[in-house]
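seq:
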Amino acid sequence: MIGELLGVPAGFRDQFLTLLDPYLNQPTGPEMLAASTGLTGMLTDLFAEKRRQPCDDLISALIEASSDGDRLSETELLATAYLLIVAGYDTTVNLIGNGVLALLRNPSQLAVLRADTSLLPGAVEELLRFDGPANITVFRFTTAPIRIGESDIPENHIVVISLVAANHDPGRFHDPDRLDISRNPNSHLAFGHGIHHCVGAPLARLEGRIALASLLARFACLELGTTDPLEYRHSLMMRGLCTLLVWCHRF
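struct:
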């Protein structure tokens, strides 16, 4: 979906995904350098092609975008494309995978959703809160000393904010460790907040609703296909499964 939006040619999408993998896990220095060099080269070539032959895609639109004649520089284009790729690809994959797992582990909630798919928008919000696709926000830096709770954070220090912890705060959510697809209100922070709120939130919500609706419409029964412990990706930022085995029974 992200490749389609950006305008990555179909023939390059396998390479596109391979180059993304180190960004989403915990790579070694050489692996990260190789991925960064490869992705930068791929995007630079793509920018050049879109300048020669613009298409109806996001990269062409970013190249053409201007304010009073001031267009994005090559560095700004790369930074924006990196953001859209890294933030847009794995997060929705994780939303769908984590969400399906949560429903399989809560069969009564899955049954309620199957019986009334009009609950899908609220269900997606609850799945985002319950086991969202991102562990943490992007790093913040203190510009002055600050006290949070009983902790003093000096100036010029990195601050890492846990979205998972915030979304399970018992001071904010009643019975936060219980999946409730009818939870209301549900002001979770899976998409961040304020000026850092995810620009792709509407797309992620739409993809989540479509994926779950299609799964429920196609299969009469869904069951977790293993009793073994599930393995999560080795990533500080992303929360997602390596694999999810599901038994699917058609209607």
